[in-house]
Amino acid sequence: MRLASWRMIARLVRSSDVVLEVVDIRDPMSTMSRRLEKIVEAFDKTLLIVLNKCDLVPRSVAEGWKSYLEGLGYKSMYVSATSRLGTRILRGWIKANAPTKPFTVAVVGYPKTGKSSVINALRGRRGASTSPVPGSYGYTRSLQLFKVEEGFYIIDTPGIIPVEGGWPEAIIRGKAPEEIPDPLPAAVALIEKILKYNRRALLDAYGIEEIDPYKALEALALKRGWRYKSTGEPLIEEAARTVIRDYHTAKLYFYVTPPS
Q1: Are 214 and 173 in contact (CB under 8 A)?
Q2: Which residue, 132, 156, 180, sits at the end of a domain?
């Protein structure tokens, strides 16, 4: 997983007209980047919060988060990039709100929020790479400019914005599960968070009724036959990585409801 530097993100924002910040609608506030938003504001660019993966939450929750964010002063829209839900409306919004034509759109977001899926949904079959970005002094050759249609371009970075704060998001999104040296604390915190919003999540995903995070991880390891060869004890680290992985793939079903 390659994370872009904040310097590159600033250059990306400066070279764009519209910035799409892709967040996970299951937990928007934990996947929004305040630092990115300050950069967008500093360069006086148009920002849209794209609440992605709307197919994973009820319509009322999607509408609730949209209204809540707009109440905070953000422009927002919910889509499901993989299912192509709302992506045509998103394309229309961009065209209507771009300050000039031709215009460029920067698509940014934390790992696993669906940044690439949003880019692919916007590009459709008409997308064509024209790398490197023209007129952007100091950019690396790995930056890409994609043509959506005449006068409509998307800039993509080779990496993803660094994950800020927000335990355990900073850990589980900053690295692939296999690369986390000690996944246990993050998995425990993640289980606690998930069960707070869906008490049946572990039961539905794994058939495990245990709600104590440590005991649940032990039960999952034993159920899958993951044991240390030397002692026969349950290999809970592998269970922890599985929980993190299944959170990303939405096998563990949960979502945070917007504040009333």
Answers
A1: no
A2: 156
Q: What is the pLDDT of residue 158?
A: 55
Whether residue 177 sits in one domain with residue 138: no
Contacts of 141 (CB under 8 A, 6+ apart): 131, 132
Instruction: Examine the fold and report which residue of 133, 156, 179 is the final residue of a domain before the chain moves on.
Output: 156
Instruction: Looking at the chain, list the stretches that DSSP marks H as alpha helix, in order from N- to C-terminal side.
Output: 6-14, 28-31, 34-42, 59-71, 87-97, 115-123, 169-172, 184-197, 201-206, 213-224, 236-248
pLDDT at 127 exceeding the cut of 70: no
Phi, psi angle pair for 38, to nearest 5°: -70, -35
194 and 98 housed in the same domain: no
Backbone angles phi, psi at 220, to 5 degrees: -65, -40
Query: What is the reported pLDDT for 5?
Result: 82
User: Among 193, 184, 197, which residue's Cα sits nearest to residue 235?
Assistant: 184
> What is the domain count for the chain?
2
Residue-number span of the structural domain to which 240 is assigned: 169-248
Task: Judge whether residue 132 has pLDDT over 70.
Answer: no
Assign residue 11 the CATH number of its domain: 3.40.50.300
3-class secondary-structure state, position 124: helix
Mind giving me the DSSP string for 184-247? HHHHHHHHHHHHHH-TTHHHHHHS----SHHHHHHHHHHHHT-B-TTT--B-HHHHHHHHHHHH
- pTM for the model: 0.87
